Amino acid sequence: MAEEKENAEAEVPEQPKKGSKLMIIIILVSVIVLGAGGFMGFKLMAGKKTSEETHEKKVEAETSIIALNPFVLNLADHGRYLKVTIQFEVTDTSLEETVEAKTPQLRDTIITLVSSKSLNAISSPEGKFQLKDEVLFRANQIMGMERDVFKNLYFTEFVMQ
Fold first, then answer.
1. Which is it for the CA torsion 55, 56, 58, 59, positive or negative?
2. Torsion on CA atoms 78, 83, 89, 94, rounded to nearest 10
3. CATH class, range 63-160
4. What is the pLDDT of residue 110?
5. Mapping DSSP to helix (H, G, I), strand (E, B) and coil, where does residue 136 land?
6. CB 143 within 8 A of CB 149
7. 38-73 b/e (C-beta count within 10 Å ≥ 16 → b)
8. What does the domain layout of the chain look like in residue ranges?
């Protein structure tokens, strides 16, 4: 019986497999296609970054920062104080003179708004973001232009007592 198995194995010659050659060709083509696609995607993304960077540089060149003198305010809570310094980001540098002329109105609006707030309302990060939004909205209203003059505002000092 053992001899029959050896004879049977000896009679079957090894044939090259057609499926394995086809599989190798498919794998090679897939690797080439995926590599080319990855390379093209990388080049496209690198091109977008450079155009975004140049756009950011243009935006930075067009905007400017205007700092207001610090505010020391009584909060709505009795015996609570806030010292805050605010800087506005102006959307167009040509509007700086207009903003400087309206500084007293801006300061009055900020004093009125912030002094009406309680310590609990502005002590959390959400409260600070809400205060920022309210001040920014009112400041743009004061300017009375068709488009927003102020892009953003920054609290550079925020001390509560």
1. positive
2. 100
3. alpha beta
4. 93
5. helix
6. yes
7. eeeeeeeeeeeeeeeeeeeeeeeeeebebebeebeb
8. 17-61, 63-160
Give the contacts of 69 (CB within 8 A, at least 6 positions apart). 85, 107
DSSP letters for 36-87:
HHHHHHHHHHHHHHHHHHHHHHHHHHH-EEEEPPPEEEE-SSTT-EEEEEEE
Per-residue pLDDT of 70-100, as tens digits, reads: 999 999 988 899 999 999 999 888 888 888 9
Residue 59 identity (one-letter amino acid): V
Closest CA to 158 of 123, 126, 133, 130: 123
Residue 98, class by beta-carbon neighbours within 10 Å (0-12 exposed, 13-18 middle, 19+ buried)? middle
Model pLDDT, residue 55: 57
Q: How many whole angstroms from its chain centre is CA 45? A: 18
Report the SS3 class of residue 117. coil
Place of tokens 């167009």: 92
Which H or E element spans position 106? Answer: helix 103-115
